Structure formats: structure tokens, C-alpha cells
Amino acid sequence: MHLLIIEDNRQLAGNLADYLESHGHAVDTALDGITGLHLAVTSDFDAIVLDLGLPGLDGTQVCRRLRAEGRNTPVLMLTARGELEQRVTGLDLGADDYLVKPVALKELEARIRAQVRRARGGLEHSRLQIGDLSLDERTMQVNRAGKPISLPKLDFQLLRLLMRESPAVVPRARLEREAWGEEPPETDALRTHIHTLRRAVDPPDLKPLIHTIHGVGYRLSSDDALSG
At what angle do helices 172-180 and 189-201 cross, to 10 degrees? Predict the structure, then answer.
């Protein structure tokens, strides 16, 4: 999943991001409400973890403006124990769930998954399948033609996005954001990672699944009509 954490406590935001990333999720963070709202309305996230007590705009204001923009991204609010009234207000404004600090990380992830399942109509497709290529989002296991493939975390994230969007073309900028957030490397690192991914996923004896769309990005599909 692609998640956004809006939390002004830098240490807590870092701890949340580290835990979620270690469980296979892509995470962006914002340390104030204005930056968080900007990210929330300009990027696509599967869920947002939103602190109530934020500088710039507080959590209730962020939630209000997010819903006013027509964004239905699941929002899980983080609250202090004494913020009952604000918690109720946040839920009334469109937040989907809340957790009281200190946060149990395992419960946080479980609640995020529950809200994403609900947003997707009760189905969370943890197993992706394109042709003879399969990827399990929960276990991070990848197989091609029945053989396991071991991938570094970053390459796994790129493959997961390509499979989620298949057979659509994924622009280079979106792939770079998936891998490096809002600060992609200046070098052409994406091309290098795609090359490595191709070596793992598309051995010479199997039909290529990863296709380059010149000047646009990449697509993953068993139909090579648009390959290049």
C-alpha cells in the first residue's frame, strides 16, 4: 500500500514509517498540516494516518478540506488521550477510524488494512497475478512459472506497482515517487532498477512481461502489443 503519515512529532513519524516500510508499504511523511494536505490532494494514497494536533492546519481542518476536495482516501486519526471532543469532531468530518497514543504499531497496520479493505468494497487483493507471474503483498513472495524470485525491497515495490496498474502504462515519475518519495535521485537510477528487475522477472526462456513505453514509462503485461 502507498501510505501518507501526517505527524508533527518527527521521531514518532519516523518510527511509524520505518515499521510500515519494513512490512512492504511505501510511505510518505509530512510534519505539518499544510504540507500533509498538499500531498494528500496531489498524490494517490491507499490510506492516511493523521495526527490531530498539527501546526499550520490541525487534523480536523486537514480532514475537512480533504473531504471538501472530494478525496475519499481512508483516514485514521492519531489522538492524545484527552482529545475526546476533537476525536468525535474528526469522525464527524469524515475520518474513518482513530487510535490513541501511544500507538501499537501492529494494531495500526491492522486497522489501516481494515479501512483499505472497506474502501475497496471489502476486498483487499493481497495476491497479484499477471500471466505466470505472482506476487503476494502480505508475504512479499514473488514467483514466475512456479519458481521463487528474490527481490530487494525497492525492486519489489516497483514490481508491485507495475502489477497493480497492469496493463496500464506507469509513468516514470510515478515509479520514481514509489521508490524514492518526493526526492528522486538525479541519476537515471530507475532505468538501472528496471534492468535488474527484468533480469529477475524475465529470464531468456520466458515471454517478457515488462515493456518499455519510450518517452512515457513502463508497463507489465503478458500482451506485448505495446512493447518497445
Answer: 90
